[in-house]
Design goal:
The complex is a heterodimer of chains A (426) and B (76). Chain A has helices spanning 30-37, 121-125, 146-166, 184-190, 251-255, 258-266, 285-301, 317-330, and strands at residues 2-9, 12-15, 20-22, 25-28, 43-51, 57-66, 69-73, 92-98, 100-105, 114-117, 132-140, 175-180, 196-204, 210-214, 217-218, 225-227, 237-241, 272-281, 306-310, 334-341, 362-367, 371-374, 379-382, 404-407. Chain A contains eight helices and 24 strands. Chain A has one domain (2-410). Chain A is an alpha/beta fold and 426 residues long. In chain A, β3 and β4 form a beta hairpin. The chains are: A alpha/beta (426), B alpha/beta (76).
């Protein structure tokens, strides 16, 4: 599969009478994006705001972060099975609006959502302090159930992102990158001397608003399968995951997964990037066993030499991670695992809930329990009502001077397990 | 907790969903539970079915407690 990614750099976002992109400036008609968000009758009202890097702004509770894209050539559309009709994506030409994001916020689960600070120490820890953010706060109709609210906000975010992406359809990209994968046989013939390496991505699928969707399918209902790595760039995988902020993969991360992009950089040079294998993190032991069995089986059938495995979330998915690692290694395939740590505020506790000697090559996204003080900021987009209840906060979080004492866990993307952030351990 | 109680000379049955973690931490008698969000029950069942399920888990745990084991054992 061959996908051409056109990057259109957005230097500023402004509200205007008409939506358009001109000279790198995204003009947004508030009326138009409101109408797009309100297409769903479950959303009572929506407000839009713009947050720029360096501004004294705190966004919370953050649900998802999405990069607007548009499919210009080739099969299917962005977010297949979700917004676009089901069709296999990942080939042709796609444009992305770089440097900006749509951020959805609202009081869906409250305690399970995150914080994005646009300035100060918190901004250093969240990758989304560096993007120009169009933030949408959605209020649901009365009496709605949480999971229906989550779904309504999830879809509203995608609709707005697709609406903005469409504005770029007839533009000329500032930069173009080409990503090309081989079929199994082609790869063997073309790169006979390079190690065959795949990416095993574990998708959060614990249920109760810890969910991920693949072509619209709830990931807890999939068995491990193979993707061409370019498929994710068209939105084949989207987030419906509300927890935990620091190590969940927002849709933005799925679209820009750094493991996939870095493996493409090395494809044909140091490795033959064979494919992406996706698996899940379910709450039944039988599911964990089945999925890790199948993942290891696929690695064997593909004659891989090595895999990189990334986790999403923490706690019981640590077991899925270790089961995958152990079983894949047992098939003679080398593994490197990417995780993060919950090693206590002093960093002295056991980092993962499970471990095994086979996991001898581990990359960490950092210690999510690390304490940080977030100073009071001038403006809040969303609400601070839940700030003492977000995972990683406590009753003592809100201090007298208005600053917050929290663990890194509360910051969206702080310890991301695909390497999307810059944090590492000493 | 399982290990500390056993260290005090009292045998323990660990009822848990993710038995591999229980193996890693060193429990000796392990009884598998239902699922992580609802280890000791199943909200998908009706009242009577669920009560029977719960009783079965408790009875299995009590049986495990009475059973001599040679090393770590999962009572499936």
């Amino acid at each position: 599969m061959r996908l051409e990614m056109g990057h259109i750099y957005i230097k500023d976002i402004q509200f205007a009478a008409e939506s358009k992109i001109e000279d790198g400036i995204l003009y947004v008609s508030e009326e138009a994006v409101k109408a797009v968000a309100l297409e769903d009758e479950k959303i009572k009202s929506v407000s839009f705001d713009i947050a720029k890097p360096g501004e004294s702004v705190r966004i919370t509770p953050v649900k998802d972060v999405i990069e607007p894209r548009v499919k210009v050539e080739g099969r299917g559309g962005i977010f297949p099975g979700v917004i676009a009709k089901v069709d296999t994506v990942g080939e042709g030409k796609t444009y992305a609006l770089k440097g900006m994001a749509v951020v959805t916020a609202g009081r869906i689960v409250g305690f399970q959502e995150g914080i994005i600070d646009m300035t100060g120490p918190g901004a250093d820890y969240t990758p989304f302090s560096k993007t120009l953010n169009l933030v949408m706060v959605c209020e649901p109709v009365d009496g709605i159930k949480q999971h229906d609210y989550e779904k309504a906000v999830r879809f509203a975010g995608f609709r707005v992102a697709v609406y903005l992406g469409e504005l770029a359809r007839n533009l000329t990209p500032d930069e173009t990158k080409v990503y090309e994968t081989c079929t199994i046989k082609e790869g063997m013939e073309k790169y006979p001397n390079l190690p065959r390496v795949a990416y095993v991505q574990m998708l959060q699928s614990q249920g109760l608003l810890h969910d991920t969707y693949v072509y619209g399918v709830d990931a807890k209902k999939i068995v491990p399968t193979i993707l061409s790595p370019t498929e994710i760039m068209d939105g084949a995988i989207v987030s419906g995951n509300c927890v935990s902020a620091c190590d969940k993969n927002p849709t933005y991360v799925h679209l820009n997964n750094p493991v996939v992009h870095d493996m493409f950089d090395q494809h044909g040079k140091t490795i033959n990037f064979v494919c992406q294998i996706i698996t899940n993190e379910n709450v039944y032991l039988a599911d964990k066993q089945r999925s890790s069995d199948w993942t290891a089986k696929l690695c064997k059938m593909l004659d891989l030499d090595g895999v990189i495995v990334s986790q999403e979330g923490f706690g019981n998915p640590d077991t899925d991670l270790i089961m995958n690692c152990k079983k894949i290694e047992a098939e003679g395939v080398k593994t490197v695992i990417i995780t993060d740590e919950y090693a206590g505020r002093d960093g002295k506790s056991q980092s993962l809930a499970d471990s095994d000697p086979a996991a001898d090559a581990v990359v960490t996204g950092g210690n999510a329990n690390q304490v940080i003080i977030l100073p009071k900021l001038d403006k809040v987009i969303g609400t601070l009502d839940y700030v003492t209840k977000i995972a990683g906060a406590s009753e003592e979080t809100l201090r007298e001077d208005g600053s917050l004492e929290v663990e890194l866990q509360v910051l969206t993307g702080a310890t991301n397990e695909t390497g999307f952030n810059k944090l590492s351990a000493r | 907790m399982v290990k500390e109680v056993e260290r005090a000379g009292i045998p323990v049955v660990h009822v848990c969903t993710v038995t591999p973690i229980s193996m890693t931490v060193g429990a000796n008698r392990i009884v598998p539970a239902i699922a992580i969000p609802h280890p000791l029950g199943n909200p998908a069942l009706d009242r009577d079915e669920e009560k029977a399920l719960r009783r079965k888990i408790v009875e299995k745990a009590l049986t495990a407690l009475e059973t001599e084991v040679e090393g770590q054992t999962i009572f499936d």
